[in-house]
Design goal:
InterPro entries: 4-OT-like_dom (IPR004370), Tautomerase/MIF_sf (IPR014347). Pfam families: Tautomerase. This is 4-oxalocrotonate tautomerase. With 62 residues, the chain is α+β, with helices and mostly antiparallel strands. It contains 1 helix and 4 strands. α1 links the parallel β1 and β2. It is elongated, with a radius of gyration of 15 Å.
């Protein structure tokens, strides 16, 4: 049973998450040959102030 954890900045709509979950599930089924019912996807919405790249918070960028 594959479990996929997706982290991205908060602000995605429910519809975007729904579409992405469908696309990820289809790709996983194709690549692994598993059933769609066995694919779990967990979305983690992260604030820009809680994510840093290269030592700089994303909330501090431009």
């Amino acid at each position: 049973m594959p479990t996929i954890n997706v982290q991205f900045f908060e602000g995605r709509t429910t519809e975007q998450k729904r579409d992405y979950a469908k696309a990820l599930t289809e790709a996983t089924v194709k690549a692994l040959g598993c059933s769609p019912a066995s694919v779990d996807i967990i979305f983690h919405d992260v604030k820009k102030s809680d994510w840093a790249t290269g030592g700089e918070l994303w909330s501090d960028k431009g």
